[in-house]
Amino acid sequence: MASIVLKDIVKKYGDGFPAVKGVSLDIADGEFVILVGPSGCGKSTLLRMIVGLEDITSGDLEIGGKRVNEKAPRDRHLAMVFQNYALYPHLTVYENIAFPLRLTKGQFSQEEIDRKVNLAADTLELRDHLERKPANLSGGQRQRVAMGRAIVREAEAFLFDEPLSNLDAKLRGQMRTEIARMQRRLGTTTVYVTHDQTEALTLGDRVAVLKKGELQQVASPRGLYEQP
Ligand code: ADP
Ligand code: ADP
């Protein structure tokens, strides 16, 4: 687990108008921060820079106290969960969860992989579904498999990009509870992008409001509505 510190982060795509215009934010080790804001305000861009899928134009990004601007995604030890899950259709639930462990060649024995996958499956109540393929799962179960892949990485932090936006209202409620429970149990630093107001007000320790590439406000969920 690690802190994430953004220092005056700027992102320009090509020679266009900056998508992110100098964002500074200190996210403490173990903290759960929600990132909200209108479509196009730079939320995804910010997440993608943190995970390393997008270059930072200027500013400093520190993870666990170390500057990581130039580090490849694999060396940042983060786990990102996307809204479309990105599961492999031809692999079972077990193999989907095990996938990140198999990528790191030779590092984990089959026994260790077994232990980690089963632990994640227990945490997410997927034990009875390990041999099934994604096509035979519900939306909520698929979302849990995607989270299982994040858990087995034993990442420094979780990054969620609107993970529940494809689910119906009932499932969204269930998954919200589950994500909150998982984050509390694991205590992993989390940045969570959403435009769902209920998620913003119930999940995080703090809510950061982004508007046109700038942080407009950072407050506790209650503080957000207690304007000065
Ligand atoms: P959000 O996630 O808040 O909807 P984005 O981070 O996707 O916002 O986009 C922020 C701004 O950057 C938008 O104006 C968008 O058009 C622009 N943008 C995003 N990705 C690219 C890209 N790959 N190339 C050029 N412009 C981009
Ligand atoms: P490869 O290591 O074979 O190039 P990928 O292209 O899938 O595999 O991923 C490259 C690196 O990016 C991985 O080693 C991993 O550390 C990181 N990575 C892949 N997917 C994610 C994710 N969902 N969240 C965070 N990091 C990821």
TrEMBL record:
Domain ABC transporter, residue spans: 4-228
GO molecular function, one term: ATP hydrolysis activity
GO cellular component: ATP-binding cassette (ABC) transporter complex, substrate-binding subunit-containing
Gene: ugpC
Keyword list, A-Z: ATP-binding, Cell membrane, Membrane, Nucleotide-binding, Translocase, Transport
Organism: Actinotalea soli
Gene Ontology biological-process entries: carbohydrate transport
The protein's name: Sn-glycerol-3-phosphate ABC transporter ATP-binding protein UgpC
